[in-house]
User: Fold Replication restart protein PriA from Solimicrobium silvestre.
Amino acid sequence: MQSEKILQIVLDTPLERVFDYLWTGEETPQVGQFALLTFGRREMVGLIVAMKQNSDIPRDKLKSVLTVRQQLSPVSSEWIALCSFAADYYQRPLGEVALPAIPKNCRTSKTTALDKALKKLSLSLEVKGEPSESPQLNAAQQNAVQHIVDAKGYAPSLLYGVTGSGKTEVYLQAAAQVLARDASAQILILVPEINLTPQLQGHFQARFPELTVAVLHSGMAEGERTLHWLAAHTGKARLILGTRLAILASLPALKLIIIDEEHDPSYKQQEGLRYSARDLAIWRARQLNIPVVLGSATPSLETWQHTISGRYVKLSLPDRAVAAAVLPKMRLIDIAKDRPQEGLTASLISALKQRLDKGEQSLLYLNRRGYAPVIACDACGWMSNCTRCSAFLVLHKQEHKLRCHHCSFELRIPKSCPTCGNSDIQPLGRGTQRIEENLQKFFPDAKIRRIDADSTRLKGSAQAAFETVHRGEVDILIGTQMVAKGHDFKNLTLVGVINPDNALFSQDYRAGERLFAQLMQVSGRAGRAAQKEGGSVSEVLVQTRYPQHPLYHALKTHDYPRFAKECLAERQQAGLPPFIFQALLRAEAKELQIAIAFLRQAAELNVPEGIIMHDPIPMSLMKMANSERAQLLIESHSRPALQAFLKEWLLQLRTLKPRITWSLEVDPVDI
Ligand SMILES: Nc1ncnc2c1ncn2[C@@H]1O[C@H](COP(=O)(O)OP(=O)(O)OP(=O)(O)O)[C@@H](O)[C@H]1O
Ligand SMILES: [Zn+2]
Assistant:
């Protein structure tokens, strides 16, 4: 029998609305299914979020949906609720959250690619060999696993384990128990960077050879992404590994969430829907009433504070897992006394030489890619500014380019100073390429490898590069934050940190927390295996002008708790997060004054008590890609009060109809 129904559908549009469409077909669709329809003149796929009998729109004005994607099972109401929460909390339309979370192939008018993926998915996979052996857990690991698997319902815990303490093994063995007791259970494991997925995928696939492991990250081709998303959505994949976007995957039987390196800033999306995957994971776990594990050697202060207040349970792994492995010895090299030559102090050179002689690996960490951050003319003071951004063009010597790391603008390297014609223009400062070049001069026979965003542009090249390190084909590895975390290098006994001081004096109140985490992480790459007979004691050398700085002192003693305690005390005193809640309204325009004027207008709208409205200020990177940018900080001691205010405020802001670009970020991390 034919029946009429009104389908309420959300679409990927900036309009904060649900659209009514008519259904006149036979089998009534279900909430959570996807429907093809015409919107204006375009064909679009939308998500059915509700159904009703009547619409406020007259019958003859209502359009019918064209078809419903019967081949896709509906997404769950919990998934729609997750997207609704994210939309609500981060102040975006539901359609802009839910639809981009679905692969494009599920949202096109033709279903060829989708059908192909579904067919591929249905082919059964062969079982691949015997599972890898699980090592005997140490007492601390065992306790952590027990706690995770014994948890009843929502149970957030922090797995606070020093670098190399075997957090991965805890994840693997907790996963094994959760999967064993529930034949359909799915587990979601998040990592901060794409380049950490192959290693983790390897571990999980080896331990669970009979299970399908799905991987979700932004570096996948559309066909691949569709296949893995479908594996997760249909429940076929029991293990789902991914970067932040995987938190929005459709997972019908999710029973455990693990977030590795939970402190990592890359869990925060910095454009569009500016969500925190970690915070959404907590919400999702509570909604589904399941355990969630946050793992880190350097937890975020927010998370640490939750363990102090008792909201999260702290599970500690105080020692390295490999019995004879110890945390590396830290040495602060005062560069006022031991003057660097080409960026490298004599102490570091001699430590490197020792490793080379013993056939051990070293890692040099410098969080700045390119050859030099700027080139300058000695005669007239000209510097290579980006004309479109308030930033310098970075010298990329091998490619003969000056490149802006903010807007990607490029120039050929000028032969002489563009202002005065002086032919002696020089690079100032150092990036990874320059260190690589100099190092090769110091050690002509050493196998040196640089891993950073420039050296790994091609798909698969980062993984290939890391494999050469694991196979021992590299003596000295140079890299940015890409090499600093997660990797389990077995033969590495020296880490050199070059020029980390900048962050000590940054205006960003989180800079110290980030620097400490980065340095602890990168230090943690050394000494992960037992010291060999006649081998070196593992060490970390930090080249600094401020060896007395308290941050370095805490680092030297591997004392995260002390560092966290001091930071939290400072934050509390200064009224900073996690002791206050923030949102940031950003505006950009041709001229700064226009952006500021809009923000000022916004700040003068009705502001209730309990909301602290600051003055608009230029952003620290004021100009970017020819736009001038300003920001307005809003704070409150109450999260609900801030949320309620933002909702109202946004409605008013929209009525101002500013002719500039603006965006709102809740819980901003970069201020
Ligand atoms: N119980 C155990 N017995 C022996 N070796 C173990 C045990 N648990 C883990 N390991 C080994 O210890 C090493 C470090 O483990 P893993 O990489 O998981 O550390 P991690 O805590 O994730 O470190 P990081 O935070 O630095 O990434 C690995 O080589 C792992 O195989
Ligand atoms: Zn630029």
